[in-house]
Amino acid sequence: MGTESIEGLRAWQSSPMAQTRDGLPRHVTRMWPKRGEELLAGGSIYWIIKGAILCRQKLIRLDEAIGSDGIRRCAIVTDPELIAVAATPKRAFQGWRYLQPNDAPPDLAKARPSDDALPAEMQAALASIGIL
User: Fold this and answer.
1) DSSP of 36-104
2) Which of 7, 62, 69, 88 measures 20 to 30 Å from 114, CA to CA?
3) Phi, psi (rounded to 5 degrees) for 35
4) In sequence order, what are the residues at sequence separation of 6 or more whose Cβ sits closer than 8 angstroms to the Cβ of residue 36?
5) Could you give the CA distance from residue 57 to residue 76 in angstroms, rounded to a whole number?
6) What is residue 28's DSSP assignment?
7) Domain count within the chain
8) Residue 25, SS3?
9) Is pLDDT of 9 > 70?
10) Rounded to whole angstroms, how far apart are CA atoms 95 and 57?
11) pLDDT digit string (tens) for 22-34?
């Protein structure tokens, strides 16, 4: 799944295809995390959009998902809240597995209703030169 913005991610996650039976967002991946219990003890999935980590979601549980090909996969079930983080340049990676807490970008203060979101490209560009 690729997206152009946090709003695009939010829209995708609101679709029935991207939700569990209980209505929570999920991301299905081929590999089951080896440190699953550790991840569930306060871990998050960090979303890279347009070359920068822009937001995260708290992990709730890991569900088994069997694909139409019969292969067992992991459905990473998350809290619906998308938490904006300081834009951090990053190439695609398995963030739910390998991002150490000291490497995690800090959460941003909640936006005011009158604030406009910066486009993902601008956030990535500003982060790459150390402004965001």
Assistant:
1) HHHHHTT-EEEEEETTEEEEEEEEEEEEEEE-TTS-EEEEEEE-S--EEEEEEE--S--HHHH--GGGS
2) 88
3) -110, 40
4) 62
5) 10
6) E
7) 1
8) strand
9) yes
10) 11
11) 999 999 988 888 8
1 domain residue, yes or no: no
Specify if 68 maps to a domain: yes
pLDDT score, position 117: 67
- Give, as one character, the DSSP assignment of residue 112: P
Residue 98 lies in a domain: yes
pLDDT at 90: 84
Q: What is the pLDDT of residues 73-105, one digit of tens each?
A: 999 999 999 999 999 888 776 555 567 778 889
Q: Which two tokens stand for residue 15?
A: 């679709």
CA-CA-CA-CA torsion sign (19, 41, 55, 45):
negative
Domain that holds residue 49: 6-128
